[in-house]
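To close the section, here is one more complete example, presented without commentary so you can practise reading it yourself. The ligand is tryptophan.
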Amino acid sequence: MINGKKVLFSGMQATGSLTLGNYLGALKNWVNLCDEYECFYSVVDMHSITVRQDPAVLRQRARNLLMIYIAAGIDPEKNCLYYQSHVSGHAELAWILNCFTYMGELNRMTQFKDKAARHADNINAGLFTYPVLMAADILLYQADVVPVGIDQMQHLELTRDVAQRFNGVYGDVFTIPEAYIGKVGAKIMSLQDPAKKMSKSDENPNASIYLMDDPDTIMRKCRRAVTDSEAQILYREEQPGIRNLIDIYSSCTGKTPDEVVKEFDGKGYGDFKTAVGEAVISVLKPLQERYAKLAEDKSYIDGIIKENAEKAGHTAARTLRKVQRKVGFPDRIRS
Ligand code: TRP
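Output:
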């Protein structure tokens, strides 16, 4: 508990450009969580270097992501938005937790297997222990809840196992985190292959709408979205392309899928796709405008970065000191 509220932690990597899927599925739903939870949203730049990065690009993307958090409506006065690398406790706790995590557990991680296959020339130890750093992120803040997608559930399970193992030895040190199951955002699929999730790493640029796409690009991508030859706008499994467009339209407008189906009853796919494009533009345009303003205000963003890193560091240090004492590291001598 911090300030009488339960703690929520989540992080995003700054690799690739965020998509409409990241926004509708995650960011947008994070905006109001601070009413109920003390929220920490980290830009997890330490996780990013498990694959090779161009330093200048990583630095810029990390800053852009922080500005996107704010542009998306996450208030930096009410939420802690910070860079993982600015709080050294993440690395320090990760080391300790490494000593409480089994090789066999890490070997089972499906994301490790996928990434190792994709980066066969650089299967480094950091990639292998990535989930331990993630566990450290979460446990350092004594998070009660973690909003994560299905692809990160295995890592969250591991976090719980490691925390329970540690608590089993040393007593109640860590809060055991749970997956956040509140109102979850729609899972947005690729516009070119509705069987796949919309992803920032998709090679086909038409598959994803990026948060910074201009209106013409957004409209063109929507109009090119893969559909079917049923010629009817219904919300059902058999029409995954149309179903995905209904999800997008419904998330952008706040209407339910049923209402969308009624609204477009008897209309053609062309009209519907145009309406979807317009709905997306009306959501992303204000976000882009806020982002452009933030990008001009260097000192404001710098202030946020500094203050929030201090705030995060403060909470992190409390947990870390406790853990260090438990495992037997000597107390520091203070004169
Ligand atoms: N591994 C997460 C992802 O790729 C990002 C992440 C790092 C994270 N640390 C976290 C998410 C802690 C939730 C909590 O999506």
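Once you have examined the tokens, check your reading against these statements. The first helix runs from residue 20 to 30. Residues 9-11, 13, 44, 47, 134, 137-138, 146, 148, 152 surround tryptophan (CB under 6 Å).
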